[in-house]
């Protein structure tokens, strides 16, 4: 972040050197800010506990307390449950990102970054990438615990790679939305409240129960919302079931959502930082 190349920051021009491009300098800034947020994870036991313990608690709770009351033709409930709970845990983990972005904007850290010749979006990218890494940790933990209590997915290697790819795309979209909420929030307390939006959205899906038992209007809404489509695609890929059109629909929803969320977040961040 301290290199000298032609970069515009706060209306000044930094002298250029022929050795490194603007893109290389921006990537270096992203790497530094990603490392900053990863260190926050490793040095903050509460964040690690949240990322690891929540998947275990939810999985054991639904598997042993509610699983006996749900009968699915041709599929064990645990095989149905694990992909949905991965998505639920991603939404839950996004709350710390909302609060973290709001804290950076309100405690003076961003003002210090603005005095440096660095890419402004690096702050946001650092939060998003560290959030996706927390989600990957949750995924690994949940699958490991699921295998210990009866999860027996029938999907092959390609199916699992496809499912993980969709879940990483979903996590990227969710964490960009989380950073957007963080830039909107005026206070850290307000950011905590806004983060609950992302916590509850995955519950209004097919994550925990099939939609066939839902009332007509609610079922239509749930079946056609973007999170349900992604869960159904990931579940089919993990369990070796027919994918149908859910894979393409998941991509059609979440690629634009991620791109638009990133664009609006960067725009809002620069507006906040300029005040």
UniProtKB/TrEMBL annotation:
Keywords: Antibiotic resistance, Cell membrane, Membrane, Transmembrane, Transmembrane helix, Transport
InterPro entries on file: ABC2_TM (IPR013525), ABC2_TM_bact-type (IPR047817), ABC_2_transport (IPR000412), Nod_factor_ABC_transporter (IPR051784)
Coiled coil start-end: none
Residues of the ABC transmembrane type-2 domain: 46-272
Subcellular location: Cell membrane; Membrane
Membrane topology: Multi-pass membrane protein
Keyword Transport: yes
Spans traversing the lipid bilayer: 47-66, 86-110, 122-151, 157-178, 190-209, 247-266
Primary residence: membrane
Stated family: Belongs to the ABC-2 integral membrane protein family.
Record-given protein name: Transport permease protein
Annotated source species: Amycolatopsis rhabdoformis
